[in-house]
Write a structure and sequence with these properties.
By secondary structure, the chain is an alpha+beta fold. It has three domains: 129 residues, GIY-YIG endonuclease; 121 residues, Beta Polymerase, domain 2; 96 residues. It contains 13 helices and twelve strands. A hairpin with a 2-residue loop joins strand 8 and strand 9. Helix 4 packs across helix 13, helix 9 crosses helix 10 and helix 11 packs antiparallel against helix 12.
C-alpha cells in the first residue's frame, strides 16, 4: 500500500456499565482507565490501556479475552471506559497498527516494536484522549502563551473606562468603544494593539481632532509613551499597547476615521469583519487559534501582512472551504498553500509528516514558529 494519511474522529466515552452503547460496526477502539464524576456526568481519562480493531466493535469489546488483564491496570476508584473510530475493513489493521506503534499501550503486544505497513499518518480528533496528534497540542500551547489573561483583559476594560472618564471632560469627544482584534477575540500579546475609538463631535478637520485627542492624553498621562501614528495615537499603558482613534458619525449613522494624510474623514464599516469572525468561531473555535498562530508566524517570519488581513484571509478560506480534517496543523498547511507561501508550506509539511518523537516534534515546532 502507498503512503497514506487517515483522519479519524473518535467517539467516546463509554464506561464499563454502558459499553453496550458501542456500535456494531467496523473500526478501531481504545480502552482506558478513568474516573467517573457523578455530579458532572463526565470522566477523567488516566491511562490508555489497549488499542484493538474489529469488524464489530460492540461484540468484540463485550467478549474480549483480555478484559481481566485490562482490569489489572485500574487503581482504586477507577473503571474501564472506551472510545472508537469507524474504519473500513481494508484499513483497520493499518490504522490499529499505526496507533499502537505510536502510543504503545501497555496491554498490547503486536505492533509495539515494529510497523509492517507503508508510511502512515494518523490525525485523530474528537474524543481522542492520550492519542492526540501532539503537534496540534503544541500549537495550542503556543497560542495560550501569547493570549491575554483574564486579569489583563480586566485591566484593558479598566483602562478604557479611565480613558472615558478623562475624555468626558473634553467637549469634543464622547462614546468610546473597543474594537479591532480585541473585540473579535483574536488579539495576540506583543503583536496586536487594543483599538479604542472615541466619537468626535467637534467641528474641526481630522487633523484637529487627532491633535486635540493627543493633547488630552499627554496632559493626563505624563509618564506614558504617547506617539502619533497617522491616523491614530499609540499609547502604552501598563504594557498594554492601545491604538486610539477618533471617529465621526453622520446623521445616517455612517462612520468615518481620519485618513492617513489627515486631510479628510475616510468612511469605514465597523462590524463586517466581526460578523465573519463570529461565523468562523461558530464553525470551530480552534479557527480563532489558527488566526492567532498565523499572526505570530507573520511577525516572526517578517511577512509584513496586516493583522486584519490575516483574519480576512482565514475567513475567506475557511467559511467557504470544506476540510475533512479538524486539526489545526492541517489548517495551517491549507492557509500556506492557498495563499502561495510555498517555502513555509514545504517546511511545515515536513514537520507534519516526519515521525518524530514528541520531544523532537515539540522542538522542531518551536524552531519553525520562531523562525530559528
Amino acid at each position: 500500500m502507498p503512503e497514506q494519511t487517515f483522519y479519524q474522529k473518535f467517539e467516546g466515552y463509554w464506561r464499563e456499565p454502558n459499553k453496550s452503547g458501542l456500535p456494531n460496526k467496523s473500526g478501531v477502539y481504545c480502552v482506558y482507565s478513568c474516573t467517573y464524576h457523578e455530579e458532572k456526568k463526565s470522566v477523567t481519562i488516566h491511562q490508555l490501556i489497549y488499542i484493538g480493531e474489529s469488524e464489530d466493535i460492540h461484540k468484540r469489546v463485550a467478549n474480549h479475552e483480555k478484559h481481566t488483564k485490562w482490569l489489572t491496570y485500574l487503581e482504586s476508584g477507577n473503571q474501564l471506559c472506551y472510545s472508537y473510530t469507524l474504519v473500513d475493513a481494508i484499513f483497520r489493521n493499518r490504522v490499529e497498527a499505526a496507533l499502537i506503534y505510536k502510543h504503545k499501550p501497555p496491554a498490547n503486544i503486536e505492533y509495539k516494536d515494529s510497523f509492517p505497513f507503508d508510511k502512515t499518518f494518523i490525525k485523530t480528533y474528537g474524543d481522542n484522549a492520550k492519542i492526540e496528534f501532539m503537534l496540534d497540542q503544541y500549537i495550542l500551547d503556543t497560542t495560550s502563551q501569547f493570549s491575554y489573561s483574564p486579569q489583563e483583559i480586566k485591566n484593558i476594560e479598566q483602562t478604557k473606562n479611565h480613558l472615558n472618564a478623562i475624555i468626558n471632560n473634553v467637549t469634543d469627544f464622547e462614546k468610546p468603544f473597543l474594537g479591532g482584534s480585541y473585540k473579535r477575540g483574536t488579539m495576540v500579546k506583543g503583536i496586536s494593539d487594543v483599538d479604542v475609538y472615541f466619537r468626535y463631535i467637534g467641528t474641526g478637520n481630522s487633523q484637529a481632532a487627532l491633535v486635540k485627542l493627543k493633547k488630552c492624553l499627554t496632559d493626563t498621562y505624563h509618564d506614558a509613551i504617547i506617539k502619533q501614528d497617522k491616523p491614530s495615537i499609540l499609547v502604552d499603558f501598563n504594557k498594554i499597547p492601545l491604538n486610539i482613534t477618533p471617529y465621526k458619525e453622520d446623521s445616517k449613522g455612517n462612520l468615518s476615521i481620519p485618513d492617513k494624510l489627515l486631510l479628510y474623514w475616510d468612511n469605514v464599516k465597523f462590524g463586517d469583519l466581526e460578523k465573519k469572525v463570529d461565523l468562523l468561531r461558530a464553525k470551530d473555535v480552534n479557527l480563532i487559534e489558527l488566526i492567532k498562530i498565523l499572526k505570530l508566524w507573520n511577525k516572526n517570519h517578517n511577512k509584513g501582512i496586516k493583522n486584519f488581513k490575516i483574519e480576512e484571509n482565514v475567513c475567506a478560506l475557511f467559511l467557504s472551504y470544506y476540510s475533512d480534517s479538524d486539526t489545526i496543523s492541517d489548517w495551517i498547511l491549507s492557509y500556506f498553500k492557498n495563499n502561495s507561501y510555498t517555502t513555509d508550506s514545504n517546511k511545515f509539511s515536513t514537520l507534519i509528516k516526519n515521525n518524530y518523537s514528541n520531544a523532537i516534534l515539540k522542538s522542531e515546532w518551536i524552531k519553525f514558529i520562531n523562525n530559528q
